[in-house]
Amino acid sequence: MSSIYLDHNATTALDPRVLESMLPWMQRQSGNPTSRHVFGRSARDAVEHARTQVAEACGAYASQVIFTASGTEANNFAVKGIAGNQAGSQILYSAIEHPCVSRPARAMQQAGWLSDAIGVDAHGVLSTAQLQQQLQKPTSVASVMLANNETGVIQNIAEIAEIVRKAGAFMHTDAVQGLGKVPVSFTDLNVHAMTVSSHKIHGPQGAAALILDKRVDIQPLLHGGGQERGLRSGTENVAAIVGFGAACELAVANVAQFASHTQMLRDTFELGLKALDVTIFSQQSTRLPNTSFFALDGIEGETLVTALDRKGYAVASGSACSSDSTEPSHVLLAMGIKPDLARGAVRVSFGAHNTLLQVTDFLTTLKNEILRLKQLTGVAA
């Protein structure tokens, strides 16, 4: 039985065209990009071409792109690096941030910084009133994600950034889930720093970037040979960076088609969900077109995910980076969802290659598995 992949917010398959662009840097002798000979110069040219591709995809300048190995690394770099070059004050982050933002913010408390979470409403939208109140304390940096990896809710980052800027703080956004699904512009978002990642847009794992306003004073992430403007030393992963650049170019070219196709699949799916007596989260908010997050009373999300996996459907019970946790989704708890319902949460995230037939077949399987699990629960009770 072949499995149907419905977990594209966790990671995506490598596009064959991206792999083709990477192969020369994996199969042939290539130089260190810092070397002066022809092999090194060729590698440097490839890295700089990819930097331009990433910049153009993000509405930024190539000089603002700093390559990292992951979105987690870029987010840690932004939070710790920006705060670290200022006097100990406050770091703010939304209550629905990925752990790779919230945990480094809290870790900075050991070095004398304060950290605090900005609340969201019942639909997953950030409270700007609370943000303004919290900004009355001296603040180094505020980090609010563009689009949530679980609910898909899109924040009004430009408005939030203006509030943060007026308070004299720096603004960072994790745009990992937004790139390739909705138009993303570093300039239009009005932020000082922005994170994007390769493996969410059919590029290779092991490549990401922090887009950084050059006027921001930030501590280096890694000290060494001085690569990436002296901010992230270490020999560049040329093949992965080349792949990231190619993936960015393809993602931007296809973003409108991706959005219309996946929203059609999601709308069809959620119409079918309504007949199954489930709770769909954040339906009233602006969301990523491909993402649906729902829950059933009385059925654990992990149990349903495992059951669906056995039937050939790959979905998630929340963030892939916290899938080893048995705790309810922190995103749903921040939205005021009761823990018992939050434990039943399941995320479906569609991709460009999913089909309407797959959606209708999945709905049939989902209905059958829900009925089966309810019967088992009834017997157990």
From TrEMBL:
GO terms for molecular function: cysteine desulfurase activity; iron-sulfur cluster binding; metal ion binding. It catalyses: (sulfur carrier)-H + L-cysteine = (sulfur carrier)-SH + L-alanine. Pfam families: Aminotran_5. Its cofactor is pyridoxal 5'-phosphate. It is an enzyme of class 2 (transferase). The keyword RNA-binding does not apply. Belongs to the class-V pyridoxal-phosphate-dependent aminotransferase family. NifS/IscS subfamily. Catalyzes the removal of elemental sulfur atoms from cysteine to produce alanine. Seems to participate in the biosynthesis of the nitrogenase metalloclusters by providing the inorganic sulfur required for the Fe-S core formation. InterPro entries: Aminotrans_V_dom, Aminotrans_V_PyrdxlP_BS, Cysteine_dSase, PyrdxlP-dep_Trfase, PyrdxlP-dep_Trfase_major, PyrdxlP-dep_Trfase_small. Keywords: Iron, Iron-sulfur, Metal-binding, Nitrogen fixation, Pyridoxal phosphate, Transferase. SUPFAM superfamilies: PLP-dependent transferases (SSF53383). Residues 4-360 form the Aminotransferase class V domain. Its EC number is 2.8.1.7. This is cysteine desulfurase.
